Amino acid sequence: MAAGQSQERPREQSAAEIADVKQRVADWLKTCLTDWDRETHMTKREWDRTCKRVAAERERFLLANPDMAKADESDPRLRRR
Q: What is the average per-residue pLDDT within 38-64?
């Protein structure tokens, strides 16, 4: 282990916290998919694939870093609409 790294494991998330992360990611994905228009630099298929990839990455990150999921909730710029 490198100097300065902690052996602490991330805290376990409750079922409700996990469900909240999954719902927020689903909402974000829905918004991302509807943001596409013909003027974007990607085809509709590329946009769809990119939205799904980024949503999956976001979900994995938030589930692996529960404190970041809480930070995401507290930032008014990132709250669900």
A: 95
